[in-house]
Structure formats: structure tokens, C-alpha cells
Amino acid sequence: MAQPFPVPRRCPFEPPPEYAAMREQAPLVRAALPGGEAWLVTRHAEAQQVLSGAGISTSPATPGHPSRAMRPEPPTPEEIAVLAEFSVGHFIDLDPPEHTRFRKLLIPEFTVRRVRELRPGIQDIADRLIDDMLAKGDEAELVADFGLPLPSLVICRLLGVPYEDHEFFQSRTRRMLSVSADDGARFTAMAEIRSYLDALVTAAEKGPEDDLLGRVIGSGRLTHAEIVGVIFLLLVAGHETTANMLPLSVLTLLRHPAQLDALRADPSGWPMAVEELLRYHSIVDWAAFDRVAAEDLEIGGQLVRRGEGILVLGASANRDERAFERPDEFDVRRGARNHVAFGYGVHQCLGQNLARAELEIALRVLFERLPGLRVTAPDEELPAKYDGPIFGLTALPVAW
Ligand code: HEM
């Protein structure tokens, strides 16, 4: 029988318990979605095979793509019109060779070398946010005071989006990604962010600066609408993910004080710790991993026919005992960089070097400057996004 899907998380530290049973059962499991069926990929090797992109399409326009089956009803003509406008330049949803055109243009902005140049700015933002927290007293709410503003400030600075407008685009992003909002509200939020960015790009086109947006405009390789789509994708992808990882990482490290002490004693362990936090939490899970077979394929011994939808369970692949020893154990010294928290293959996270730098700097600075940091609410009272596509906490009360 097909597994009803999606299944929600019930704990901040574990994927849905159904994943382990499905992984045991088979590498590919049939899922019953609200409006149809799809394959769920449960194991690491098969996850990499699908995400590598060979014989696979990620475009919602390809017949059989699971984005249609995730909804009980087909989209209305108005929604189809918003989606069509939204898809221009939204290259996470495009297949090569169209996708390659965008990716090639943006890769130089996110190389290890480029991100190294951004590190002092990130450190400065982290320090200033902690100064503000200290100025207010000995308590804070870590999502609002640190987790969300840090990546938001970084990406705004990088893109040339005024941070003063953060309440506007953060509230719209939340609505867009909220499962509890109705479809109408979600589509309105998307259209609002797009028209805000349209005006921003129009202004920048009149006098491009030497920033990412200016360079993309100056390249002359993208249309106005494509640039708006690219900035939209970078803005949303650039803060929603890291913002969710930061508070979860703080909570997890505080629950493993011996490992945290070791990191304080030897900060060279931070990069490896960040990889483990990414693997352990797998906050994106399947949300970005919706695919469709573009030809008949064999995956994990299973024939998948052209036009059949596929969802890769990243949170299951990252707990696959075939790829990781003691996968449910949190171990900052594990050194497993083969996790799929940033995906794999053609669409692997473009901002991964930036995300790593943000997490590493933010966590190191926070634990160095607030040595007495502790969470002031019990785990079971922490509000979490159990119904959202990207997992995270909505608040983390702390004191020091
Ligand atoms: C902890 C933080 C982050 C996580 C866990 C994460 C995760 C992911 C994942 C899983 C994908 C692959 C989607 C797929 O296969 O379809 C992806 C793609 C992407 N990410 Fe990230 N991301 C993070 C931070 C960032 C940041 C800071 C940026 C900054 C600009 C960013 C920009 C992008 C873009 C543009 C893509 C699309 C790449 C493409 O389709 O070629 N991400 N991310």
C-alpha cells in the first residue's frame, strides 16, 4: 500500500519516524500525495543517483512533476498565470541547458575565494547583533535577535536589497512557505515580493553598482524579468535556510556540552561540526527535491517510468546506515561531507560556501562571547515549524 505523504516531524532532532521503516523496506517506496502518487527515495545512494540529474527533470512544467500532486486540486487559471511569471529566472526549477546559463553566470559570486572575502563582513554582523543582545540585558529570543537577522543582513548586503525592508520580504516569505496559509494568500505573497524586486531591479538598471545585482545587469546576459527571478530566488534561499539552521544548531550543541566544550577549546573543529549539524538536521528534507523521470530509468532495482514523479527524502538519505555509521548519533567529529543537505549534482546549493561561512562564524562568535548561554524553555515547549516545508524553530528563548 502507498505511504500517505507528507508525514510531519514530531521532534526537533529526528526526521519523521516513518522514514526508518521505509528505508528498511526499499530504496524506492510508493507515496500517496494529496492529489496523486509519486516515488519516495529513501536511501543515500539512490538519492545521489536521482539528484545527479541524469534522465531526470526538476521543472514543474514537465508532465508528471510531483508539484501538481502535492495539491488536492489543480491550480486555477489565475494561479497558473502567477506561477508562469514566477518561473522566469527561477533557475532552481529549470533543467539544463537553460539552467546552465544562469548557474554559469552566478558561480563566480559564490566561490570559496569570494566567500572568504565576505567573512569579515559576516563576523562584523554577528558581533553587532550580539552587542545589541548584550545591551538589552541577559535574555534574548534567538530566532528574532540573531538567527533570522544574520543571514538576512548578509544576503541583503550581497544583493543590494535594502535591509530596512526586511519586515516586508520576511513576512511575505513566511506566508509563501507556510502550509497553514491558503493558496490565495501564498500566491499574493509571491506576487508582492516579485513586484517589490521588479521596482528594485528597475532602479538598479538606471545606475548599476559594483555589487552582485550590478554585475548581473552589466553582463547583459539576462532579461529584466530573469534578473528579478534570480534575485527572488537568492533572497529567499539565502535567508530562510540559514535562519532555520542557526537556532537549531545552538539548541543541539547545548544538548551536547562535551562536544561544545571541545569546539570551544579547539575552534578548528567548527567546519566539521557545521557539516554534522547540516546532516543531522537536514532541514530542507524533500522540499527542494521534487523531480520527474524524463525517461524510463532503473533506480535501486526499481523501474521508474518516464513521467513518474519522484521525491528524494534528504532527511532519510542523511540517516541511511548504509552511508553513515551510527547515523542517529550527533557527532561533531564525524567528518561526513557526503551528506545531501545541500543536495547533489546539477542543482547542488549554489550558496553552500556562504551558508557554511555564516554558520561557522555565527556559532563560534555566539558561544565565545556568551559563555553562559542556555535555553530557558524545555524542549517540548519550543515552537517548531512541524507543518512547514523547511524545518526550523519559530522561537528559541535563551539567557546567559
Ligand atoms: C544552511 C543553509 C542552506 C541549505 C541547507 C540549503 C539547501 C539547498 C538545497 C538542498 C538545494 C538543492 C535544491 C535542488 O536540488 O533542487 C539548494 C539550492 C540552492 N541554494 Fe541553498 N541552502 C542553504 C543556503 C543557501 C544560501 C545562503 C544561498 C545564497 C544565496 C542559497 C542559494 C541556493 C540556490 C540559488 C540554489 C539553486 C541552485 C540551482 O538550482 O542550481 N542557499 N540549497
From TrEMBL:
Keywords attached to this entry: Heme, Iron, Metal-binding, Monooxygenase, Oxidoreductase
Keyword Metal-binding: yes
Superkingdom of the source species: Bacteria
Pfam families named in the record: p450
InterPro entries per record: Cyt_P450 (IPR001128), Cyt_P450_B (IPR002397), Cyt_P450_CS (IPR017972), Cyt_P450_sf (IPR036396)
Entries under PROSITE patterns matching the protein: CYTOCHROME_P450 (PS00086)
Region annotated Disordered, chain positions: 54-75
Protein family according to the UniProt entry: Belongs to the cytochrome P450 family.
Protein name in the entry: Cytochrome P450
Organism: Actinomadura luzonensis
